[in-house]
Design brief:
The protein is mainly alpha-helical and 301 residues long. The protein has one domain: Na+/H+ antiporter like fold (Up-down Bundle), CATH 1.20.1530.20. It is globular and about 55 Å long. α2 runs antiparallel to α10, α6 packs antiparallel against α7 and α13 packs antiparallel against α14. The N and C termini lie close together (9 Å). Helix content is 76%, strand content 0%. It has 14 helices and no strands.
Length: 301
């Protein structure tokens, strides 16, 4: 019941964001400004703050293997199915990401705080996606588009300019080396971190205003893989491969059920490839994720 109550808190804050967006109470450009605040400042501060109080050895463990394995399995199945449906290799790569690249930062962290009571569980998702999954996939897209300006090294360099990845790596490094952090740094970071969860949920609610999508076959396929197959694979890997049960199993299934990240649309726009699919899957998978997460909570929470 406590978990369901936490989920109710999340839905309530999202509803407030939706009302703000619907009434345009914060004025034009508010959603983008708040989203930038979350992305550039609040969420990196939250990740850093979490890692200052977390044993880094608990971050890079079975959780990372389950997160990576479930994403790659769902993504590769998605790629093969899109190819079988006659889609080009670049379109299928975007379909692969839409089927497996989770919204770990903007939605994963708030849900982890209120549903799992532990935002640290999201860090393996961010590390895997930003440091490995995105650079490798984008480099493959570059090669398919015959880009001469982009290489694996360049895409990795771009990934390492991501503020969330930098914050996570800095926190892990400090934790592994046991470097003392002065209050002059930790206290402002903690203060900024407090804005991440509520503002991210407000932005998410605002983003739902005016969302119209076409429920065609490719969209339904990607949503089924992301919202249904990936959490199932996460649960199977966690339980039968690593022997996890209880809260650890529940947390990994919740992470697997997270919706598709908006980053996928950014990548699609960058390569002018399958933009409509990336946009529609982002919206539909987000709406579908809410009842799926409730179901997972009832069954495993």
């Amino acid at each position: 019941m406590e978990v369901l109550a936490g989920f109710g808190v999340v839905v309530a804050v999202i509803a407030v964001g939706y009302l703000l967006g619907r009434t345009d109470a914060l004025g034009p450009g508010a959603r983008r400004a708040l989203a930038n605040l979350v992305y550039l400042v609040a969420t990196p501060a939250l990740l850093f703050d979490i890692l200052l109080r977390t044993d880094p050895r608990t971050i890079v463990s079975e959780n990372f293997a389950v997160v990576a394995g479930s994403a790659l399995i769902a993504g590769l199945i998605g790629f093969l199915l899109f190819r079988l449906r006659g889609r080009s290799a670049p379109d299928s790569l975007i379909g692969m990401l839409a089927s497996s690249y989770a919204n770990a930062g903007n939605l994963g962290i708030p849900l982890a705080v209120y549903i799992l009571d532990d935002a640290a569980v999201v860090i393996p998702v961010i590390l895997f996606q930003v440091a490995f999954y995105a650079p490798v996939t984008l480099t493959t897209l570059d090669m398919l588009h015959h880009s001469r300006r982009s290489t694996l090294a360049r895409n990795i360099a771009v990934a390492f300019r991501n503020p969330m990845l930098l914050a996570a790596l800095a926190g892990l490094l400090i934790g592994f080396l046991r470097i003392p952090v002065p209050a002059a740094l930790s206290e402002p970071v903690s203060l900024l971190a407090g804005a991440s969860v509520p503002v991210a949920l407000l932005v998410f609610g605002m983003s739902l205003v005016g969302s119209r999508v076409l429920l065609r076959g490719d969209v339904l396929l990607a949503v089924a893989l992301k919202n249904l197959l990936q959490p199932l694979v996460s649960g199977l890997l966690a339980h039968y491969v690593f022997g996890l049960t209880g809260p650890a199993l529940f947390a990994l299934v919740v992470l697997g059920a997270l919706p598709t990240a908006q980053n996928v649309l950014t990548y699609a726009l960058r390569f002018r490839t399958n933009e409509i699919l990336a946009r529609d899957v982002g919206v539909v998978s987000t709406l579908v994720s809410l009842p799926v997460l409730v179901l997972v909570t009832v069954l495993l929470g």
